[in-house]
Amino acid sequence: MNQTYRYFEQFLSYCILAIILLTNQGCRQHNRQEKTEQPNVILILADDMGLGDLSYFNDGLTRTPNLDQLVEEGVWFSQAYSTAPVCAPARAALLTGRYPHRTGCVTLGMKRFPELTKMDKDLPTMTDIFRDNGYATGLIGKWHCGEGEGYHPMGRGFQEFEGFVGYMVKSYFSYELDVQGKLYKFEDQYLTNNLSERAIEFVRRHKDEPFFLHLAHYAPHRPIGAPKELVDYYLGKGFNEKNATIYAMIEIMDQGIGKLMAELDNLEIRENTLVIFSSDNGPDPIPGERFNKGLRGSKYTIYEGGIHVPFIVNWKGKLEPAQKKEVIHFTDVFPTLVYLCNLQLPASIDFDGGSMAGLLMGKAENNLPEKRFWQWNRGVPLYSHNAAMRQGKWKLVRPFVTRNIPDGPSEQRSVLYNLENDPFEEHDVSKQNQQIFENMKVMLEQWCREMEFSRLNNNEQN
């Protein structure tokens, strides 16, 4: 009897154990399914980095093996554009999916132009939406979209902030960081390495829940600086000191991105993490010119060198490696992430961009706008200056005049480029394509009027 009871007891234990194992397996499968429906997102943004800074495209002038690997294993957009040739408006557009003039953030210089560098409080950011959809949200690095009550990153959808505004960085070896609203001074940690380590710690903290991390590096923005031994390496290759320093800064950023990707692998969440890498605008001309694939212009200008930026989307195991020639734009990032992450949106939200999810998934069709626009000048917008429109292979330009505040409206004549034949914007073809030229002039003028109406209307409401 006792032996029969023991057999029954063992049998019952095995049944209970089997039920537990099957239940746990079901939970794991359910959790994996939930994670697939809500992938993590890491949005990495360099500062003043050009297409020519990637070793993948410069025949080994620099060393960026980790970014090169993201290109090889991801989707590379060869016709990717920022929304502005300077940081603050570009970042506001990236976070909202709207043209900068609709965001309230139209220029740079948060101290000099505080009212023109504040992203409207009533405008939802992608981080607001990620947070409202159950994501842990964090910004590590640069913030350039407003100061004061209601404008701190933690008031714009970021639950965690470990970063700075530009004037807090005296050098990459001496700077302050705002960590959850408290300031800390650093004199012994190179800034880029510090940010990379903080990004890794953020991922470790939130590995068991969906997260959105915006890693906004300062490199290679001024004030330029890097460890001497790495600068010496590039000096030994024949570069001048400024370019050697910039390339060293980029290499250190690349090393940190490599460590971050390795940690995703180590935590076994790489295949559930969508990684985007880009730069806010093209290279800064003030430290001096450097290789940028022959593109005309630089930061501050709406020529290709100022707005045509590197753009990588990497989702290991989910996206097939590819190179895409379609024109994409910072205003497309938010709507794309809404689709890929199955985010619920309030009915009132609106975008100027479209979703590139179809392109990422290898589909022939896409939901992207046919026309793209740019305009920037220091101070209050002056639309006769430094404005452009692209439609297909055609690009209409109202020429750049100055990176300082313009003296008044520009009287320079608009020009037309065929980027398919002339990617370096050397030949005005407006006379040979008069109808296209006139039509695009009208469309650019209409856009400028619409943007200024939106800007002034938003100012009145705020």
Mean pLDDT: 92
**How many β strands by DSSP?**
15
Given the C-alpha coordinates, what overall shape results?
A: globular
Q: State the order of secondary-structure elements, H for helix, E for strand.
A: HEHEHHHEEEEEHEHHEHEEHHEEEEH
Q: Number of helix segments?
A: 12
- Structural class estimated from helices and strands: alpha/beta
**What number of structural domains do the residues give?**
2
* The named CATH superfamily of the largest domain: Alkaline Phosphatase, subunit A
Strand content: 15-25%
Largest sheet: 11 strands, mixed
CATH class of the largest domain equals Alpha Beta
CATH architecture of the largest domain: 3-Layer(aba) Sandwich
User: What Rg do the Cα atoms give?
Assistant: 24 Å
Distance between the termini: 84 Å
Which terms summarize this structure?
single chain; 462 residues; alpha/beta; Alkaline Phosphatase, subunit A; Arylsulfatase, C-terminal domain; 2 domains; eleven-stranded mixed sheet; four-stranded antiparallel sheet; 15 strands; disordered N terminus
Question: Could you describe the 3D structure shown?
Answer:
This protein has 462 residues and is α/β, with parallel strands linked by helices. It folds into two domains: 37-369, Alkaline Phosphatase, subunit A (3-Layer(aba) Sandwich); 373-461, Arylsulfatase, C-terminal domain. It has helices spanning 2-37, 65-73, 87-96, 100-103, 126-132, 191-205, 228-235, 241-266, 304-307, 333-340, 357-360, 434-461, and strands spanning 40-46, 75-81, 136-142, 160-164, 169-171, 174-179, 182-186, 211-216, 273-279, 311-314, 322-329, 371-375, 387-391, 394-398, 415-418. Strands 1, 2, 3, 4, 5, 6, 7, 8, 9, 10 and 11 form an eleven-stranded mixed β-sheet that branches. It has a four-stranded antiparallel β-sheet with strand order 12-13-14-15, covered by helices on one side. β5 and β6 (174-179) form a beta hairpin. α6 (191-205) packs parallel to α8 and α7 (228-235) crosses α8. The protein is globular and about 60 Å long. The model is unreliable at 1-8 and 13-35 (pLDDT under 50).
